Amino acid sequence: QVQLADAGGGLVQTGGSLTLSCAASGQTYRIYGMGWFRQFPGKEREFVAAVSWSGGTTNYADSVKGRFAISRDITKARGYLRMNSLEPEDTAVYYCGARDVNSYKWDYWGQGTQVTVSS
Predict the structure, then answer these.
(1) DSSP string for residues in the chain
(2) Which pLDDT value is given to residue 26?
(3) How many CA atoms lie within 13 A of 18 on its CB side?
(4) Which residues of the chain have pLDDT under 50?
């Protein structure tokens, strides 16, 4: 099993920046990729960004391309999401997820961290 602890959310003004972090522990060798998702009130969780654990290949939702940057530090078993030019529409609970090397599914999740962007 892999345990994830995400942190770094908070309140920021429009145009501001935040960096979320995700600390992985346990059987971290099971991580194939790490990603960030967000959930708006009353909505399904949606994909934001992902990075492959070994090669560092990234991909992003169109809504955040050019504003958000995902990265990972394998030596520390941590992932990050740098969010720039934040907009009120980015207000959501953000979740760190990890994809399992065997199932290729997003089997592991953090507890979520609230990001609120004020106008």
Answers:
(1) -EEEEEE--EEEETT--EEEEEEEEESGGGEEEEEEEEE-TTS--EEEEEEETTT--EEE-TTTTTTEEEEEEGGGTEEEEEE-S--GGG-EEEEEEEEETTT-SEEEE---EEEEEE-
(2) 98
(3) 20
(4) none
